[in-house]
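We append the chain.
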Amino acid sequence: MTVLMALCAVAQVKPGIEVLRDGGFEQLKGKRVGLLTNPTGVDNKLKSTVDILHEAADVELVALYAPEHGVRGDVYAGDKVDNSVDFATGVKVYSLYGKNRRPSAEMLKDIDVLVYDIQDNGCRSYTFISSMGVCMEACAENGKEFMVLDRPNPLGGNKVEGCLVEDGFFSFVSNYAIPYLYGLTPGELAQYLNEEGMLKGGVKCNLTVIPMEGWHRYMSFEQTGMPWILPSPHVPQAVHSYYYAATGIIGETPYLHIGVGYTLPFQLFCQEWIDAQKFSKAMNDLNLKGVIFRPIYVKPFYGNCKGTNIQGVQVYITDAVDCNLTLIQFYAIEVLAKMYPDHLAFDEAFKDRFNMFDKVCGTDKIRKMMSKRYQVADIIDYWNKDADAFIAKSKKYYLYR
């Protein structure tokens, strides 16, 4: 049995693209199709949705739209994506991560429907859901249909953490008033944004969602049996979605090295001034549910602390269901403030990054409240204040149980 045959044999879940194909592309027949995707848009045999739609009978793929990293993943993290032509199909590629973050009327004029197929990581600050939302807005404004080919939320469908984005803090890393971890698939989120008036100006697009088959809310990505394609360079395996949620916010400042630039992206809390053994013990003494820590010593290859011997802890998430993922980084800030009062997370030395930290949090209240005493107890209620209400409100858009 080949590797690809094995992948297909063990897959318990069919992504939306396979469900669409199994239905003979009925919803796209006779239509001029645009596709917003990246390398994660594949079937369970790793064939790109670009190629699947290009080869499909009665489907005319006329345009591609490139988010961060590009349609084929050939653009480095943070680099501007340029308009181009797809080398494999000859289809025009419009950039949505450069001068334009949303498609113009000119970019949409030749299509009837814009299809979205991207594997997300379940976190508000990941830019792909922002690209999805602004494309929905553009389609509504220009009379174009919008279709989501659904994929799993790798954090599962029940993990909701963090407050809603507040006025003054909306950005491409916090584009909609949803929690930091929102517990929805891309298709469910699209329905929520569309029906709850969350799109700019309250517009509503003509939305179709092609659901997955076989997915349940309790599932980890590993349980789906689907192949994981890295959606960005530092999320190489599905498990890194958990670690992104656990360390990515504090990673917006240079206060700590979180593993980006080493072989353990989003899995570390390290610095030159930390004593790894003492820090590890202090973090484990908190007895946080679903996570343990071990001392580690590293020399990053690039980025923050490049070429410097640093030490700290490696984070081990042992039970992602029981663990409050996003609070892990705030507990690290608290412990380090007690151990090293001369090294504080919100020291003025990092003030040029406070704006980005606040945008990712969706508010400046978390930073300001924690700055007073550096205790998680001061922020925990505010951070989680919107979770229950959001779950109750979003349940009517669930496509899966």
User: Anything to note?
Assistant: The mean pLDDT is 95.
